[in-house]
Amino acid sequence: MNSSTPLAERMRPTTLDDLVGQEHLTGKGSILRTAIENKRIPSMLLWGPPGVGKTTIANIIAHSLQAPYFQLSAISSGVKDVREVIEEANHKPGAVLFIDEIHRFNKGQQDALLGAVEKGIITLIGATTENPSFEVNSALLSRCQVYVLKSLQDNDLIRLLQHTLQKDELLHDLSVDIKETTALINISGGDARKLLNLFELVISTEASRVPQKKIVITDALVMQVAQKKIALYDKQGEQHYDIISAFIKSMRGSDPNGAVYWLARMIEGGEDVKFIARRMVIFASEDIGNANPNALLLANTTFDAVNKIGYPESRIILSQCATYLASSAKSNAAYVAINEALAAVSKHGDLPVPMHIRNAPTQLMKNMDYGKGYQYSHMGEGNFIPQEYLPEKIAGTKFYEPGNNARELELRKFLKDRWKDKYNY
């Protein structure tokens, strides 16, 4: 490589042993490493923040398999490009197709991949910074393994800097001493590419200022070159996760001022309105739930509205919803209930459905006592007849505990009136 090739590209690993971080996927005995070593690679989606090795892993896989390798970017490619690659791959068995930012493909573009993936014409490797459950259609998602990549830790980034100084040929002619790493690490936000780009910028800036002299990397020097620690909001870096966390926790803590501030940070940074609205829909159910059922209605309406409106007007709708959610009564009772029910399912397995509440659409089922003894609730006083709805092994288990708020106290009274002491409401 020549001097015009960015340092991050010059240092791109070519083997799993050179890869920094992601030991849970690529370390000795890990699931992905084993698949690569056995040369049995499934189609996959690599999900994680920028600069953590998604493209690098795809390149390593293709190199390890010695397979024909195609690469597309969802930003600049369309259905026509996908079909051309698939047509070429038809004549190249074992071809690997890497699609960067696959979440940017619309449904039609994703559907164009289905047949080739299903028939094994291509092994698809998609890279995404967004949750595949939301951004990749279910048909394609079901045909791919999803591997989650993590932000690089401080020790990973320090190791990468040291490795770079030892291995990069173009840095051999310079005398570089890394005295401090805090600023480099903080600004990079777990992104190896951002770290090396900044490192290269600092070195080149200082080398042009004091040629033939030793370059000492300090936090002050890094900050001077970088001008400021980090932009207001980096929707592809660590702050993406930190700020949405602050936003959610402000609403959970019933602070509309904190909520609207962190919302403004996301808006100023150009965050996807769907991402913000989607998180508020989840929040309305997870953190408010039956304490105020209108919260979910408003959040869902907000999601629909901002998709139609877009920036800048959608900021008003987002603000209305965020301040309402923050100012609402809170309850995580529904969230706790489903988690405890799932734990019971995991613990007890597939318990049989009680005979009296089984469906009996055929005479044979009726003869086998399906539905026998079921009492139609609307025939009872207050549209209620006490009977057991849980499997015998966990009969009487209470999963839902209404919260201590006006709405759920009403629910508690309703349940206590009907179930008396059975569930101890």
TrEMBL record:
Highest taxon listed in the record's lineage: Bacteria
Example GO molecular function: single-stranded DNA helicase activity
GO biological process per UniProt: DNA synthesis involved in DNA repair; DNA-templated DNA replication
InterPro entries, alphabetized: AAA+_ATPase (IPR003593), AAA_assoc_2 (IPR032423), AAA_ATPase_RarA/MGS1/WRNIP1 (IPR051314), ATPase_AAA_core (IPR003959), DNA_pol3_clamp-load_cplx_C (IPR008921), MgsA_C (IPR021886), P-loop_NTPase (IPR027417)
Domain AAA+ ATPase: 40-152
Pfam families from the UniProt entry: AAA (PF00004), AAA_assoc_2 (PF16193), MgsA_C (PF12002)
Keywords in alphabetical order: ATP-binding, DNA replication, Nucleotide-binding
Stated role: DNA-dependent ATPase that plays important roles in cellular responses to stalled DNA replication processes.
Family, per entry: Belongs to the AAA ATPase family. RarA/MGS1/WRNIP1 subfamily.
Name this polypeptide is given: Replication-associated recombination protein A
Source organism: Sediminibacterium sp. KACHI17
